[in-house]
Amino acid sequence: xxxxxxxxxxxxxxxxxxxxxxxxxxxxxxxxxxxxxxxxxxxxxxxxxxxxxxxxxxxxxxxxxxxxxxxxxxxxxxxxxxxxxxxxxxxxxxxxxxxxxxxxxxxxxxxxxxxxxxxxxxxxxxxxxxxxxxxxxxxxxxxxxxxxxxxxxxxxxxxxxxxxxxxxxxxxxxxxxxxxxxxxxxxxxxxxxxxxxxxxxxxxxxxxxxxxxxxxxxxxxxxxxxxxxxxxxxxxxxxxxxxxxxxxxxxxxxxxxxxxxxxxxxxxxxxxxxxxxxxxxxxxxxxxxxxxxxxxx
Length: 297
What we know:
The protein is α/β, with parallel strands linked by helices.
């Protein structure tokens, strides 16, 4: 074999091994969620609550932990935190948001996705969230709240809420900071860490293959499931969000099929911080949406 051909083959082999190795490392980095402790209590904001636990759907050996807040009405809001958060999500300020929703008359369930906070199991980004949301909904149904359940999801919690709602009969959902595709979110998260977008994009095929081989999963893009959600959806985008864009949110809104869907961009807000920027208007709009749409018998 000619010497130049041997050198070329060796270079190709090194590139393939390097690509495969970085794809594996990247997939582990993207999927693995470190366990964070719950940083706060409803008592911090003067809220009465009940500690609750319930199994995740289809896996009764994994218990999820949370807090249930009793409001004055018959409508219940389930809050789904982001991938690298707990039920006390200080980016969103879920405790104060819960206080505002309870004051508006809603019952609220705040819980930790598996592998986060006090919930059992191993945290994997987006992979098991649907079953966890399903377990929370099943728990609420045992309390007789099946007809008036709404969900608010943030970031990857919004993405998995969209996936869940495309398969489940739910009252209404709010998607705050939902990305259109998994690839776009991965790329933007990497660029915020100084990794060039073109380099991340070149590894997306390798990441997809590795996630499928190692975790048995094929990532689902919200843009592909939004059209089959039958319940009303309220899309919320923060104007200065560095992880999703106005264009993406508009694409999701345009892809949705329900005439009752709504969209709102919050001026001057960062990713998932819309409530913190304008709590009064945030609650007013969310309350108006859920009041109109959670009208089951």
